[in-house]
């Protein structure tokens, strides 16, 4: 996650998933409103960012768009570039279905000026914002918060908030959780067993994910 189109302050986290995403479709959701951002996987919240005034113009200051792409980030994303893409397995295909967007449309008449990070006007967005803020998925219940905590304890293997080599002072939106922090090195990576590769499973397979998102 980057603010205002700049990679100078990358807000990166890395996770393993409790399933193989290439085997079947799963639901990935992002709530983005004026106060917070929440990431969901199959109705399990995995990350929440609360907007702070100290973040200043990083968001929400511009109209947003949605696109998806596949690109080779193995020079840095896979444990610092240790594991490159094996193009013997190409072509790589990504399939999507049932895409749903819910938000406020920005008038096409406003200028598309990338240098202007403030001052955009929105038409009739107040009602849409209120609907989003009042929706069930705009808040995390105590049970969902527990599911998110379990997910992060078991499947997150890098967090920029704990990478004091990169950020001697954590960015203002970081919420330092002692139980999480103790598991990471100063580089933000796990002290033990941290990698982008899934752990080898024992012969006894589990048929259900460890985390639960029952309402």
TrEMBL record:
SUPFAM superfamilies linked: Concanavalin A-like lectins/glucanases
Residues covered by region (Disordered): 190-215
Biased composition (Basic residues): 194-206
Gene3D superfamilies assigned: 2.60.120.200
One record GO biological process: glucan metabolic process
Superkingdom: Eukaryota
Keyword Glycoprotein part of the UniProt annotation: no
Domain GH16 per the UniProt entry, residue ranges: 1-96
Homology family: Belongs to the glycosyl hydrolase 16 family.
Protein name: Xyloglucan endotransglucosylase/hydrolase
Lineage of the species this protein comes from: Eukaryota, Viridiplantae, Streptophyta, Embryophyta, Tracheophyta
């Amino acid at each position: 996650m980057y603010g205002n189109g700049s990679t100078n302050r990358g807000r990166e986290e890395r996770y393993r998933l409790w399933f193989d995403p290439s085997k079947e479709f799963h639901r990935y959701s992002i709530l983005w409103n004026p106060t917070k951002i929440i990431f969901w996987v199959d109705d399990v919240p995995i990350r929440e960012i609360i907007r702070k005034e100290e973040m200043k113009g990083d968001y929400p200051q511009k109209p947003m768009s949605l696109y998806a792409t596949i690109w080779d980030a193995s020079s840095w994303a896979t444990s610092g570039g240790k594991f490159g893409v094996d193009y013997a397995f190409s072509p790589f295909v990504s399939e999507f279905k049932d895409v749903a967007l819910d938000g406020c449309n920005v008038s096409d008449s406003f200028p598309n000026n990338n240098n202007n990070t403030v001052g955009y006007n929105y038409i009739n967005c107040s009602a849409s914002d209120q609907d989003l803020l009042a929706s069930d998925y705009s808040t995390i219940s105590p049970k969902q918060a527990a599911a998110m905590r379990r997910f992060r304890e078991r499947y997150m293997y890098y967090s920029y908030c704990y990478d004091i080599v990169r950020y001697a002072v954590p960015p203002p939106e970081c919420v330092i959780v002692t139980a999480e922090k103790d598991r990471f090195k100063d580089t933000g990576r796990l002290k033990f067993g941290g990698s982008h590769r899934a752990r080898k499973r024992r012969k006894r397979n589990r048929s259900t994910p460890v985390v639960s998102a029952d309402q």
